[in-house]
Design a protein that fits this description.
This protein folds into five domains: about 70 residues, Nucleic acid-binding proteins (OB fold (Dihydrolipoamide Acetyltransferase, E2P)), CATH 2.40.50; about 70 residues, OB fold (Dihydrolipoamide Acetyltransferase, E2P); about 325 residues, no CATH class; about 55 residues, no CATH class; about 80 residues, OB fold (Dihydrolipoamide Acetyltransferase, E2P). About 30% of the residues lie in helices and about 30% in strands. The chain starts with a strand and ends with a strand.
């Protein structure tokens, strides 16, 4: 029998066991690799695997194998705490999936001291039986300090917290150059500076990607302009600035800061659609009637001048009070957005969002309070017009390229995996709910109706979270399969080029196609690779954002030890019960040792913890009272007990 090999991305558990899924295969078809056979493979490396011909593992059901070659390292820099034993120094990585400590010689410490949190680069590791050798590339600070922990979260995901001198210098050169060429460039663009235009963003936003304009036309028609910062005009391929943006691929939003994709000279100034400043934009322009029907769509390079910068709160106050700046424009835009939303939902779009929280921090970054973000009509207004622009760009380009693959960057969302849907159905059954599945799975419309039916129920947030986890991840790809969650056959990302590199690529391709030209084969090949890269960087940025939230939730709960709260049972495991506190959304565990009134056994089939003697049950979705008994921000862990 010939040997079987496959290539894929290595996942590593916290126990050091590896899993590799062949490119294009389902995750549940992974090849399991014992920790002794990883051959220096690290999390997210691309590897080549020899698949054993022996039967699958009895314990897990997975086929087994071993890594025979590291094809591409995902990263070589890791964050952790520097430890010492006699004259030996080593890094204990924060990422517990990194199953080896990293040895560091005295001459490679770069001033770091034992106990410091540092960033270390692996410089040699060619023998899997030995620990890797590394060098300190950055001393981050003392563990537990706010600044240290926030920077560590970013660095450990492979992002930089600052820009090189070369990139910053190039940004300043572009600012100076554009100031000289500004008037000549205006002549090449449609001039929207006299059209009523505003931006609507979070109160703490500093970079404004998008603006909305409104012209009232005869016959109860309206022209709505969705104006997007023309980043591709300033950031040219082949520059240091573009190279850095490609690497980062996205901005990161932590609890207290933004780590931008572009230097502030561009993100907050030159590209940002700041009020009362002439700005270059790439615009999607729609003529609509009162029903929100699109009568005409066009795209153009434009120059705008925003007359008002609204925060979401200010914009909502104008809608509510029906008075203030842009009252007429906001009321019309809101009516049109409602019509767009109705049609989107009727087409089957899933309309739920997970609850999000924000922190009130003191001057040292310590959390003084936690509150939930509230989505209002003004949030939905902006969202609906951004969705419209993204969809319209994808539809227009798809027509121009006759729907050929590998010609454009799409934002795609695959159908949910059948196995994950079955798991979701099993999860919902003990809660008294039935997932509306058919032979082809579940339609986005049926799923949306189901989610509407649980609105206001205690278990709503938990079910929405479980449903989200059952979904495929939306990704960037040059093969269009549509967007399941939005129920759009064509969709892309066009509206946030200051903070997302795929949007910059979309702008460049759109400009080429509108000009009746074709991108080079080299450019398209490059963009296929960048689409996959951007998808991975997006996940890493989301991990960083979630990690910063979990850190602050645990830090906040640290000051609330001994207090009682309301919560909902959000998960069950053999070792304890997970509970989500309802105000902060902080999730902690009630360990089985804390359930002293009986011996409890986890009933996996019915998602319940059942007492052997009393038959008392703790079930998913149960509302409970809990007391915080400990919190460890470094480990992102909170311990509760029932009261």
């Amino acid at each position: 029998m010939s040997e079987q090999y496959l290539e894929g991305i290595l996942r590593v558990s916290t126990k050091g066991v590896g899993y590799v899924t062949a490119d294009g295969a389902k995750r549940n078809e992974s090849i399991e690799i014992d920790s002794t056979l990883l051959k220096t493979g690290l999390p997210d490396d691309r590897v080549k695997v020899l698949v054993y011909s022996s039967p699958p593992s009895i314990k897990t059901g997975n086929r087994t194998g071993e890594i025979v070659e590291i094809l591409e390292r995902h990263k070589l820099e890791f964050v952790g705490v520097l430890e010492a034993e006699k004259d030996f120094y080593y890094l204990v990585p924060d990422d517990k999936r990194v199953y080896k400590d990293i040895l560091i010689t005295k001459d490679k410490l770069d001033g770091a001291k034992t106990g410091d949190k540092v960033l270390v680069k692996i410089i040699k590791w060619d023998d899997s039986k030995k620990d890797p050798l590394g060098e300190v590339t950055e001393v981050i600070g003392l563990p537990g300090a706010h600044e240290t922990e926030m920077r560590a979260i970013v660095l450990d995901r492979g992002f930089k917290t600052s820009f090189s001198e070369a990139v910053e210098a190039e940004a300043q050169i572009i600012k100076t150059r554009e100031a000289k060429n500004f008037q000549d460039e205006i002549k090449k663009r449609l001039d929207y500076r006299t059209v009523p235009t505003c931006t609507i963003d979070p109160i703490d936003a500093k970079d404004f990607d998008d603006a909305l304009s409104l012209k009232v036309l005869p016959n109860n028609q309206y022209e709505v302009g969705v104006h997007i910062a023309d980043v591709s005009h300033f950031v040219q391929p082949g520059t240091a600035l573009d190279s850095e943006a490609r690497k980062r691929a996205t901005s990161i939003y932590l609890v207290d800061r933004t780590v931008p994709m572009l230097p502030e000279a561009l993100s907050n100034d030159l590209c940002s659609l700041n009020p009362d400043e002439d700005k270059f934009t790439f615009s999607a322009i729609f003529v609509m009637n009162e029903k929100g029907e699109i009568l005409k769509t066009s795209f153009a390079k434009t120059v705008i001048r925003s007359q008002k910068r609204f925060t979401y709160e200010e914009g909502q106050r104008v809608l509510d009070a029906k008075t203030g700046p842009f009252t007429k424009e906001l009321e019309i835009l809101n009516r049109l957005a409602e019509r767009l939303r109705e049609r989107k939902i009727a087409a089957g779009a899933i309309t739920f969002e997970n609850e999000e929280i924000k922190f009130k921090l003191d001057a040292n970054g310590y959390p003084l309070g936690v509150y939930k973000k509230v989505r209002t009509a003004i949030h939905l207004l902006v969202e609906d017009f951004m969705l419209l622009a993204n969809r319209a760009v994808a539809e227009h380009v798809s027509k121009l390229i006759h729907n050929r693959d590998n010609q454009f960057i799409y934002r795609i969302h695959d159908l949910p995996d059948q196995d994950k849907l079955k798991q979701l159905a099993d999860f919902l059954r003990p809660l008294g709910y039935r997932l509306p599945m058919s032979g082809n799975g579940v339609t986005s419309g049926d799923l949306n109706n189901f989610l509407k039916s649980i609105t206001g129920k205690p278990e709503e947030a938990m079910i929405k979270t479980a449903t989200m986890r059952s979904m495929a991840k939306a990704v960037y790809d040059m093969k269009n399969i549509g967007h399941y969650g939005l129920a759009f056959p064509h969709y892309t990302h066009f509206t946030s080029p200051i903070r997302r590199y795929p949007d910059v690529m979309v702008h460049r391709l759109l400009e080429i196609y509108l000009g009746g030209k074709q991108p080079s084969a080299e450019m398209l090949k490059d963009y296929r690779r960048l689409a996959a890269h951007a998808s991975m960087r997006e996940l890493e940025a989301q991990d960083a954002e979630r990690d910063s939230i979990k850190y602050k939730q645990a830090e906040f709960m640290q000051s609330k030890v001994g207090r009682t709260f309301n919560g909902v049972i959000s998960g069950l495991a053999k070792w304890g019960i997970f509970v989500q506190e309802e105000m902060t959304l902080a999730e902690g565990m009630v360990r089985l040792a804390e359930l002293g009134d009986d011996y409890y056994v986890f009933d996996e089939k019915n998602y319940a913890m059942i007492g052997e003697r009393t038959k008392k049950q703790w079930r998913l979705g149960d509302r409970v009272r809990i007391k915080a008994i400990s919190a460890n921000p470094a480990a992102r862990m909170i311990d509760f007990k029932f009261v």
